[in-house]
């Protein structure tokens, strides 16, 4: 708008930023403080593209922009960046207030994009105050589509836009869950009287990938930051082998030898559970899990048990339903777009960005930063294309 454009924002929901608000429930991890080379590695195959986006609008730029909205941010002990309030509402409110004060901005809620043509003609379906549905046709100079991924449909990100965009003839990849939980066939004994519990300060590995963090065990399986970080590798193994094996290190700060030495301390009359609690602090759900994943004889053999504590094998049978996932991979392939994120071979100017494109990143602020950097890039390209200064 500062560049002279009039901006009309259309969303199918009754309010904007619903998924952003949901992200705020977990503290709103806006971005990460690590240096850009390490940061861009998190985007896997698309790391070079994101490296250039991050140079254009970096995590530092994002933090400065938050400051302009009156939102102070801080770097947590893990290097992740959060707003001081650990919520999204204040940031979204102040962002919307700034937009609404601008006479060149208009907001159109409950407008669902139902079709779009290559010539830029768009059709929306609008439910008005009297709950009547009517069709609205629109033709504008430039279109930016950011329709989200396919999880948490109650926030509006339902992935149904794939049908509305059919006439744009783009190549799409099917959506799949990313940063998601997994189902595990626990024994009935394990599930009994148990809903969810955390195991903190663990490391989790799958193939060459290893992460430090926490997991949440649930009566259906496993969730949590460390699992989400491995979801790309886990999904790959599930689709090729029908299941995936991950390995949990319950004591990442101790070597195998240290653990053996501690387990070999005299047990006296203590039961193994008391002994594990006293010498290694393994108790509660960690103890329950260790018992679940070892046979009786393995559990009584100190040498074998020490190995299990360092490398406990857990089999994941399937990903949780896509609607529960924090993000989705799949969507519009980058090959449909040029470097400006402008749709190729199209008679009108249609840009695409955000989670609706086929990229993935772990949790840690990489998703939101990726979306913000894409938005900055698209707006810059649009301004350049129209030579408005
Ligand atoms: C529980 C949870 C926690 C998260 N926490 C974090 C976090 O801490 N850090 C982080 O980096 N990321 C986090 N994310 C991910 C992050 O929120 C998303 O990656 C990000 O919001 C994607 O932005 P987007 O603009 O591409 O899509 P969205 O935010 O999904 O927005 C898409 C919009 O398009 C609208 N829309 C869709 N179809 C139509 C249509 N046909 N017509 C009109 N409007 C339509 C929707 O209503 C929606 O408002 C979290 C996600 C979840 C679910």
Strand percent estimate: 15-25%
Label the CATH architecture of the largest domain.
Answer: 3-Layer(bba) Sandwich
Number of helices: 15
User: What percent of residues adopt helix (DSSP H or I)?
Assistant: 25-40%
How many strands appear in the DSSP assignment? 19
- End-to-end Cα distance: 11 Å
Average pLDDT, all residues = 95
Side-by-side strand order of the widest sheet: 16-15-12-13-14-11-17
Note the main sheet. 7 strands, antiparallel
What ligands are attached or bound here?
Answer: flavin-adenine dinucleotide
How does the helix and strand content classify structurally?
alpha+beta
Radius of gyration: 24 Å
**Mind telling me the CATH superfamily name of the largest domain?**
FAD/NAD(P)-binding domain
Shape: elongated
- CATH fold assignment of the largest domain: FAD/NAD(P)-binding domain
Under the CATH scheme, which class of the largest domain? Alpha Beta
How many domains in all?
Answer: 2
Return residue spans where pLDDT drops below 50 for at least 5 consecutive residues: none
How would you sum up this structure, described in words?
This protein is α+β, with helices and mostly antiparallel strands. It folds into two domains: 7-178 and 324-386, FAD/NAD(P)-binding domain, CATH 3.50.50.60; 182-319, no CATH class. It is 34% helix and 24% strand. The protein contains 15 helices and 19 strands. It has a seven-stranded antiparallel sheet with strand order 16-15-12-13-14-11-17. A three-stranded antiparallel sheet has the order 2-4-3. A three-stranded antiparallel sheet has the order 6-7-8. A hairpin with a 4-residue loop joins strand 3 (73-75) and strand 4 (80-83). Helix 3 (47-56) crosses helix 15 and helix 10 (256-263) packs across helix 14. The longest helix is centred in the last third of the chain and has 21 residues, at 366-386. The N and C termini lie close together (11 Å). Bound molecules: flavin-adenine dinucleotide. Residues 10-13, 16, 18-20, 22-23, 26, 28-29, 112-113, 146-148, 151-152, 156-157, 161, 164, 326-327, 354-356, 365, 367-368, 371 line the site of flavin-adenine dinucleotide. The site of flavin-adenine dinucleotide has 33 residues, from helix 1, strand 6, helix 6 and helix 15.
